[in-house]
Amino acid sequence: MPVNDGKKRCFWCNLDNDLYVKYHDEEWGVVNFDERYLFEMLVLESFQAGLSWETILNKREAFRLAYDNFDVDKVAAYDDQKIEELKNNKDIIRHSLKIKSSINNAIVFKEIQQEFGSFHNYLKNFIPSSVIYENHRTTSPLSDELSADLKKRGMKFIGSTIIYSYLQAIGVINSHDDDCFLYRKSE
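-> structure tokens emitted (187 positions)
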């Protein structure tokens, strides 16, 4: 059922999709540095490469089930049998390279947690202490730098555009359109 509450939202928000409206209104651009959420968004954003976010969002619950609620320890330990199970799961994106990279990225994520105490602590080396308010971009010097460092550490499917989207998803960058009811120029 289309949302008809009179609120103007970002142009990309499909008002016919309740999941998308809820994500737009309550989650996107909201600061969230919970470690499980940071890992979940990293996995989902990497699967989104070449697809619409709405496609990923519609499969999010299936991803949560398939990926053990994004428990990084469990994902890092996935074996060939689990990879085959994921590749045959019609409810998620069954892209072999993305599946394998998600496991690889879980291992690197854990290494970063061990080195810095948490993934959030690692991110603090790149992100400013306050939210960045900008829209109409798909990359930035910040996403370029973070993407390059993650690649150097061995992560895959984390180009600058994916990392920019990731930073939006976890609330580091707030990119609501100028005419969106959630638009802010600054805090």
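The chain has a mean pLDDT of 96.
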